[in-house]
Each structure stands twice: as C-alpha cells, then as structure tokens.
Design brief:
By secondary structure, this protein is of the alpha/beta class. The chain has 2 domains: 8-209, Glutaconate Coenzyme A-transferase; 224-459, Glutaconate Coenzyme A-transferase (3-Layer(aba) Sandwich). The protein has a 9-stranded mixed beta sheet with strand order 11-19-17-15-14-20-25-27-28, with helices on both faces. It has an 8-stranded parallel beta sheet with strand order 3-13-10-8-4-5-6-7, with helices on both faces. It has a 3-stranded mixed beta sheet with strand order 22-21-26, with no helix packed on it. Helix 6 crosses helix 7 (249-256) and helix 13 (432-441) runs antiparallel to helix 14 (445-459). The protein is globular.
C-alpha cells in the first residue's frame, strides 16, 4: 500500500486488510485541535522531532506503535537522546525502552505495570505512577504531566478524512489533545471503531505507514478452579445487569457461565473474545441500560483477531475516553452494575492488595476502585473480588495480614462480595470479626485452621474460633 504524500485518503473496507485510495480529504476545519494537513514520513524521520527531556505518550495495550518504538530505540542507541520520559497504560508486545541498556536515556513511568515491563520495574529501570484509571486522562488535561509528543496508532482515514484509534482510547485521546506534536501510525489492521475513537486526520502532524498486526491475546479454557469461580459469580449476576470485567482468565470464565442469562449490558474498561458468543446468542443486548442503550462501552480491548474483526465498523460498540467509561458517577447511572475484579491478596478485614506483592509492584491500581464505587452507587449493583483461594505454589491468597510493603488498592470499606472456588460471601455491613469468619469460610480448607487461629489472636476471646 502506498500513501500519497499530498494527503490522499485511504478508505478502510469491511476486510481490514483491504484498502483503496480516495480523493484528498478536506479535513475538519472547525476543530480546536486542527493542525493542518499531516505530513507522510518514515518512522526514522518522525521520531527526529523528539528531544532530550521530552515526555512521550504511547498508545496502549494491543495498539502500541511498534515501528515508532523501534525507531526511537535506534535513536537512543545512537547517543542522541537523554532523559526522555515515556508514559502509557500497560502495553502488549516488546517494550525495549524499559531495558537496562537505556538507563539515563529513556525513563518509563507507566500508569499500569504490564507483564512486559514488570521485571524492569521491580529492578528500578522503570517506574510506575499510582493512579486511578479514570484519572489517567487528567494527568494530561490538568497539566500534571506534560506531553510533548504523542505516538499513536490509527486505522486509515475514510473518505471524510477521519481515522479511528481502534482498540485503545483510554488516556490516548487526552494525550493527543494536549501534545505539542502527534505522530500517527496508519495501520490497516487497526479496526475502525466508533465513539470517542473517531478523530479528524487533520489533528495529526505526521503520518507513518505500517502494517504490523496488532498484539493479540488468546484466553485458554478455564481450569476447574476458574470454572468454579465463574459459576459462583454467575449465580450473583442478575438478568438485566450491566457488566464490568477486568483482565484475565476469571472474567472469561464468568462469561462462559452466562449463556442462560437475559438482557445483559456492557459498560467496562475493557472486554475480550468472551463477549462475542453472548452477543450472538442475544444474551448481551444492552436493552436494560439507562445510558448508551444497546451499546457495548469500553475504553480499550485485548483479544484475538476475531475480536478486532467483531468491533470493526460495529455501531453497537463505543470506544470511549477513560474519563467517561471509568467515572463512578457515570457508571452508577446504569442499573444492576456488576463489577468483577481480582486481587493478589486479601486480609481478614477485607483489605485488597491488587497492584503489588509485598513491596514488589506487579500491576496497577487500574479501574478496580472506579468500578467498585460506581457499582456500589448503582441501583441493585454488586461489586465482586473474584480470585483463587491459593497461588500456583499453594500459598493462601487470604492472609491474616497483608505482606509487608503491600499497598491497599481497595479499602475494606469498598469491598462487598468476595468469591473463591469455595463460595461467595458478602462483607458489606459486616463487623471485623464477622468478616473474618466469612472470609475464612471460603479459604482453602488446608489454610482455614491457621487463619482461624490468627483471627482469634487478633480479635481476642470475643472472636468465636471455628477451626477444628
């Protein structure tokens, strides 16, 4: 595919790999962000605008602009740059800028610690900004973080001169709005999604052509523990509920159990392939939503190419700014909001550690608190923490106290439902001793007596010991 330097528009067809040249676009002259006709350049030339000390935003998750990342790292190796700050939500795929070789050249301060930068973050070669997912966009819009250059990925422009951010709106839209310069990779593999994802091509300074496939993630079939957790969660989900699901195997296991439900809706930070069969069966139709009726609302996506094909040109999917999807007061407008998230560890009072294992940062605050608060304010809403009772090495994830250095992401006051493979308990409105007994009741049986004794030592003789 050849992109004319004079600004010819590429129209994305139903098949995302098929493109066709169209007449030059007129652009969106009324937008306050209009920059003029973007220039088509190579990745190497595009990253030449980056200077030492600049703050760079990268589009996130499945849509990180790999050709620009490679070109930027090449500049870093040449010795041209120092102290360039990089920001993004978590990304999939290679993240070489976080490697030790770039110490003093690139500094990654991510909004969420993904698997591809976890080791580097724990070793101190990268860092993490604790922030609610809903407020990541505020870091740019309210000036807490500068954005000198935004490097994003979009689908080809349509005949009207509009592109789409595809699978990743999150804080990227805010970065585009506030950046001094914006580089957009035009990639025919990016699906054309609607909502806040749609942007005039005239809002960009540079276009770069690339056809690297988006990063994909394939969820495995739930194992027996995940299946049991999925069944317990599904039993709590009512017909007509609006669902939020985090990332991972357990949300996928929950979706597997919802085939008999009716009139479910989606308002979430992300979704994956598991929603597709439920949409095809009519289980997910959004009919009972109070806002965005009939629409599936998210801010980023991660899944297989089947998912990306599903959302391409799909008017029932709205990809929205994270300041909208994760605003607790927006979330609460829908009835029966059911939020399902996970945890690394929980103590006997209900404190949730979700971003760190002890002092080692493992993920991020994410949208857990956003949706817990939103669900708790929703009429008939339910907020759930769903997790296996033990880790892969059989260590209990339910602890008498959190590991030293662990951060509390979700407070004991936020927590409502806790679900493991051994059942589901509602902690809301329960005293500390009542909570301890309920939490222990769904711990792994091999750890219950030890946890019971710890609770007795903590709360004294008034605590009713229930171990053997």
């Amino acid at each position: 595919m050849i992109l004319d330097r004079l600004g010819f528009v590429v129209k994305s067809m139903q098949n995302r790999s098929a493109v066709q040249l169209y007449k030059p676009f007129k652009g969106d002259a009324m937008t306050s962000m209009a920059r003029g006709k973007p220039e088509f350049v190579t990745p190497d030339k595009a990253v030449k605008i980056i200077k030492s000390g600049d703050h760079i935003h990268l589009s996130s998750v499945a849509s990180s602009p790999q050709c620009l990342i490679h070109a930027l790292c090449a500049r870093g190796r040449s010795g041209e740059l120092r102290n360039v700050f990089l920001h993004h939500l978590h990304t999939e795929g290679p993240a070489p800028y976080a490697d030790a070789e770039f110490e003093g050249i690139f500094q990654l301060d991510s909004f969420f610690v993904g698997a591809n930068v976890r080791n580097q973050t724990q070793k101190g070669f990268a860092d993490y900004i604790p922030v609610f997912l809903s407020e990541t966009q505020r870091l740019y819009r309210d000036g807490y973080l500068p954005c000198h250059v935004a490097m994003v990925q979009v689908c080809p422009p349509d005949e009207h001169g509009f592109v789409s951010l595809g699978t990743s709106v999150d804080a990227t839209l805010a970065a585009i709005e506030t950046a001094h310069k914006v580089i957009a990779v035009i990639n025919p593999n990016v699906p054309r999604t609607f909502g806040d994802a749609v942007i005039s091509a005239n809002r960009f300074d540079y276009f770069v052509q690339d056809d690297t496939p988006l990063e994909t993630f394939h969820f495995t079939k739930p194992d027996p523990v995940e299946e049991a957790i999925g069944k317990h969660c599904a039993s709590l989900i009512e017909d007509g509920a609006t669902l939020q699901m985090g990332i991972g195997a357990i949300p996928n296991a929950v979706l597997d159990q919802l085939g008999g439900h009716k009139n479910l809706g989606i308002h979430t930070e992300m979704f994956a392939d598991g929603v597709i069969p439920l949409v095809e069966k009519g289980v997910i139709n959004g009919e009972k939503k109070a806002i965005d009726g009939g629409k599936m609302v998210a801010t980023f996506l991660l899944g297989s190419n089947k998912l990306y094909d599903f959302v391409h040109l799909n008017p029932d999917v709205l990809m929205m700014d994270v300041g909208y999807t994760n605003d607790p007061f927006v979330i609460a407008k829908n009835p029966k909001v059911t939020a399902i998230n996970s945890a690394l560890q929980i103590d006997l009072t209900g404190q949730i550690s979700a971003d760190s294992l002890g002092a080692k940062f493992y993920s991020g605050v994410g949208g857990q608190v956003d949706f817990f608060y939103g669900a708790s304010r929703s009429k008939g809403g339910k907020a759930m923490i769903a997790m296996p009772s033990v880790t892969s090495d059989q260590t209990s994830k339910i602890a008498s106290v959190l590991l030293p250095g662990a951060g509390v992401v979700t407070t004991r006051a936020h927590v409502h439902w806790l679900v493991t493979e051994y059942g589901a308990v509602n902690l809301y409105g329960r005293s500390l001793q009542e909570r301890a007994r309920l939490i222990i009741s769904i711990a792994h049986p091999e750890h219950q007596e030890e946890l019971d004794r710890a609770a007795f030592e903590r709360f004294g003789s008034h605590y009713h010991f229930i171990g053997k």
